[in-house]
Amino acid sequence: MNCQEKVKELRELTGMNRKEFCEYFGIPYQTVTDWELGLRNAPDYVLRLLEYYIRTELLVRGKRSSKM
After folding, report:
1. pLDDT exceeds cutoff 50 at 68
2. Bigger pLDDT: 50 vs 67
């Protein structure tokens, strides 16, 4: 999966639009836009960190909501 597809997939996992995603993670809007349009590539470590954080948060939220 290329950077363009990965960033979009991760953002969609959060359920956030691009603006919300950028504000939440502190990434400039133009940077994420460039990544999603394939104009620039995010460093691999950034993609791995974003994926780890997002998947961990989703897992934690899922466990919490199932107990409620």
Report:
1. no
2. 50
Identify whether the C-beta of residue 13 lies closer than 8 Å to the C-beta of residue 51.
Answer: no
Whether 50 and 56 have beta carbons less than 8 Å apart is answered as no
Domain residue limits, the chain: 3-67
Could you tell me if residue 2 is left (phi over 0), alpha (psi between -120 and 50 degrees) or otherwise beta? beta
What is the spatial distance between Cα 61 and Cα 57, in angstroms, rounded to a whole number? 6
Average pLDDT over residues 8-30: 95
Tell me how far apart the alpha carbons of residues 8 and 29 are, in angstroms, rounded to a whole number: 13
Which pTM was predicted?
Answer: 0.82
Helices (H), 1-68: 3-14, 18-25, 29-37, 44-67
Tell me the backbone φ, ψ of residue 5, rounded to 5 degrees: -70, -40
